[in-house]
């Protein structure tokens, strides 16, 4: 039986220092914690805030369009919606044009909570923008969008 190949520790250090995926994941977790902490007094996570904000449209969107916007599969979106529906913040309704498809809408309570959460998000985002001031946050946003 042959021995498994060995990877030099220097290679591990190189990957640690250069892997864009690792750095993006670490940054995403740090950002998520920051926004989760800020939104916690309102009973929201950053993911719930983003999901509710994605529903803030003139017409209720389809599950597919929301899943696409949030880069989620429909199963993950369905699971993310359940706690918001249980709290009466989001409603899922049949699409009048196609009874097989579902539309998503904020309830009045959901719109009120989102309006209360928005100033918290703005303050937190301003704090993040200040932290990134010397690093071109706009350029970072553009670079991340290029990966979509």
N- to C-terminal distance: 44 Å
User: Regions with pLDDT < 50 over 5+ consecutive residues?
Assistant: none
Total separate domains: 1
Adjacency order of strands in the biggest sheet: 1-2
**CATH architecture tag:** Orthogonal Bundle
CATH topology: Arc Repressor Mutant, subunit A
Supply the helix-strand structural class. Answer: mainly alpha
Using the coordinates above, name the CATH class: Mainly Alpha
CATH superfamily: Winged helix-like DNA-binding domain superfamily/Winged helix DNA-binding domain
Instruction: Output the radius of gyration.
Output: 20 Å
Global mean pLDDT: 94
Helix percentage range: 55-70%
Strand content: 5-15%
How many strands? 2
Q: So what's the overall shape?
A: globular
H/E series: HHHHHEEHH
Count, helices: 7
Sheet bearing the most strands, described?
2 strands, antiparallel
Describe this structure in words.
The protein is mainly α and 148 residues long. It has a single domain (9-134), classed as Arc Repressor Mutant, subunit A, CATH 1.10.10.10. The chain has helices at residues 9-18, 20-39, 46-54, 63-69, 74-86, 108-131, 137-146; strands spanning 90-95, 98-106. The protein has a two-stranded antiparallel sheet. It starts with 8 loop residues before the first helix and ends with a helix. The mean pLDDT is 94.
Question: In brief, what are we looking at here?
Answer:
The chain is mainly alpha-helical and 148 residues long. The protein is built from 7 helices and 2 strands.
What is the topological layout?
Layout: H1 9-18, H2 20-39, H3 46-54, H4 63-69, H5 74-86, E1 90-95, E2 98-106, H6 108-131, H7 137-146
Antiparallel strand pairs: 1-2
Helix pairs in contact: 2-6, 4-5
Protein name: MarR family transcriptional regulator
Domain HTH marR-type: 17-148
GO molecular function, one term: DNA-binding transcription factor activity
């Amino acid at each position: 039986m042959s021995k498994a190949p060995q990877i030099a520790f220097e290679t591990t250090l190189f990957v640690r220092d250069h892997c864009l995926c690792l750095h993006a994941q670490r940054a995403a977790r740090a950002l998520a914690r920051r926004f989760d902490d800020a939104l916690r007094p309102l009973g929201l996570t950053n993911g719930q805030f983003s999901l509710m904000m994605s529903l803030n449209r003139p017409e209720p969107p389809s599950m597919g369009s929301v899943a696409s916007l949030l880069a989620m599969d429909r199963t993950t979106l369905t699971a993310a919606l359940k706690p918001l529906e249980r709290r009466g913040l989001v409603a899922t309704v049949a699409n009048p044009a196609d009874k097989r498809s579902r539309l998503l809408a904020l309830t009045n309570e959901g719109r009120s909570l989102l309006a209360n959460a928005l100033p918290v998000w703005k303050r937190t985002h301003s704090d993040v923008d200040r932290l990134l001031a010397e690093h071109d946050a706009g350029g970072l946003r553009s670079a991340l969008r290029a990966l979509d």
